[in-house]
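seq:
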Amino acid sequence: MHSRSPLPIVDLPVRRLTRGDLVSCADLSEDRGWPRDEHRWGLLLSAGTGYGIAEPGGKGLVAACVVTSYGPRLAAVGMLLVAERHARQGIARRLMRHVMEETGSTPLALYATPQGQRLYEELGFAHVGRTERVRGRFRAEALGSAVTTRPAAADDLQAMVRLDLPVFGVDRTHIIARLPAFSDRLQVAEENGELTGYAALWPSGEAHAVGPLVARDTATAKALVTALAATTDRPLRADVDARHEELLGWLVERGLEPGSRTAMMTYGIAELPGDATRRFAPLTVATG
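struct:
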């Protein structure tokens, strides 16, 4: 009797990931030359839904991605990774089609690298903007800011959610509530007792990443970044919406260098919801 031949990799079943897959997800990041970022994977797998294809007959993952749901109006797709040894075999397309079937009629958003952009275009995603990554040692300005910022307190969370809702366009309470534990520093800006912005600083590889960065205006965004930078000796990294040219120029003046770009893409909606003028940087490009 003949034994059944193994399924081609591209036909292997997709399964839900759990926090038990965290190390395998980090291994996949490392395999593709990204920081392991187990800290970030922990957030993604607890706040979102992970999907993966397991390595046949062994440990580890062939591919993974995470969907962060913001209710029926939006879900963000991120961290779509395929192991280098299985690249260019149609696996990313297979995983994305599965995700699109699972999310049904919910509009999708994602940030695509130049390498991934063509796949998403073929799947029907539209280009709606871009982000620019900057990284380096931050040099503070000699003059202080007129904007008042302070470390966030536990009772600021509700005000942060209220501030965030019109900016992001959908409710992300489940993300904001996790920021105090996830971030090394959470800073708020206020005027006359009212919150005008907030930002988080969290560890990523050898750097500290800034995100989300939500602020009333560019001056407030600058003050929040300056306050966060003063709390770390590591290089800073941020993925800034390219529409915020003034902030990007200022970050470069302060010592950060331009790096990679990602395309903001949507499926099922013409543009991202919310107010882009106050949305300076996402929490991560995986969560929007």
